[in-house]
Amino acid sequence: MTTDGEFHTIRRQVDRFAEEGVDVVKVAARPVEDLAERVARATDDRTLAVMLSSVLFESAEIVPGIDRAARACQKHGAALLVDAYHHLNVVPFDVRAMGLEGAFITGGGYKYCQLGEGNCFLRVPAGMRLRPVLTGWYAEFEALEQMHDARVSYASGAGAFAGATYDPTSHYRAAAVFDFHIAHGLTPDRLRAISVRQVGLLEREFAALDVDPSVARIEPVPPDRRAGFLAIRTARAFDLARALRQRAVFADARGDILRLGPAPYVSGEQIRAAIATLSRLIT
Questions:
Q1: Minimum mean pLDDT among 33-42, 142-151, 237-246: which range?
Q2: Are residues 147 and 162 in the same domain?
């Protein structure tokens, strides 16, 4: 089970499963207010796994009450995978407080963690003993000297999901970035406060343009329910993102959504200049 609001990483895989005859149930992602509750109600003893995001990648909407889906998965023996990519380091994420101790959680460091390419993770629940099909030889690295039969062996815990030999350079860069965050007091709470202020400024500056809603409009999300970017719905999303980049404003687009997501080091003056640039392109 998944939703129709997942990023392509999940969407592509589950659609491929469906092509092979796996029964895939997609729950409507909106309205997001009761998404977790609807997923929980749809989960039953036939459910093998549930995959959903804690923040929707198109609109930056925070999905509330994921603990309800977690409890339903626990009740029915289904695995829960939470995609936290658009949550980490822009909205505080507490595994215990969110009731996700029994969940698999995945995310990456490319955006809000500022780690650059080559950094992602899978959090595996404590005590989990699975034999995943697609792994690398590192998944049995700790047991190589004890291999005595033809049955494929696995490391314990998260090691069972390991890949193979790779270039770890990006991890050193990531460690340095996190050291920088600590040195400058960039805690999750402080990063959240910075993000709320920046995205709020983006919203006010765009609203002041008084753009025809049929041309472009802000996705209506309450500030306390919005994560790290402002979503603007427009049929010209990809063209605008391309034109903005040509003018040194780095935005992106997903479908008909233009996404504006400032990093913590972006100043208020730069945000105003970005909206002024967008104004010249859109009005």
A1: 142-151
A2: yes
